[in-house]
Hints:
247 residues; alpha+beta; Rossmann fold; 20% helix; 33% strand
Amino acid sequence: xxxxxxxxxxxxxxxxxxxxxxxxxxxxxxxxxxxxxxxxxxxxxxxxxxxxxxxxxxxxxxxxxxxxxxxxxxxxxxxxxxxxxxxxxxxxxxxxxxxxxxxxxxxxxxxxxxxxxxxxxxxxxxxxxxxxxxxxxxxxxxxxxxxxxxxxxxxxxxxxxxxxxxxxxxxxxxxxxxxxxxxxxxxxxxxxxxxxxxxxxxxxxxxxxxxxxxxxxxxxxxxxxxxxxxxxxxxxxxxxxxxxxxx
Length: 247
């Protein structure tokens, strides 16, 4: 998972270890920051990203290492026996580069959740499993995960995808990890609250962070609140535990 690869790059042995026999890593679980991908590429090790989930798979898409630099950040193309479509909020199939919910079909799909007919009927509709993940597909059919539907929030009537904001925040060399959640706001309905950890103890001012975000994001996407953490909460699989941040 991405946390493992990131921790390896931070090891004192990373720059001195001979990895010339390592062809590539297969990575999944959550999005891998582009900076970590580039660090491994500079080391001569390709990153092969993919996508999967327990109910359908688990391995459903794969980005071949030959495409990793041309399609950096993509989860690749569908694997065998996997049918994919992206469904917009209006129920229509998404156009190229239009965001929609990732829906899956094929013999890999679970028949349902054990003793939970309600959850089964919500997830599987007309033969398609609704993943709860928002994605887009380019003109060549390569898929990109945008965010989880439940992570998206609406600020001033506009959709904000935390993953996009987090990618910008992580581009600042002073920021190590970033997680953005939507919180209530009396004026805009919801605004972003960014939880951050610092690289090497360096903490840029909140004004500097917001100014950097404003250069790369629309104004309504810039986090209103910024909180520094000594350590980001993680679950057992190494992913950031957003439920703890929302408490």
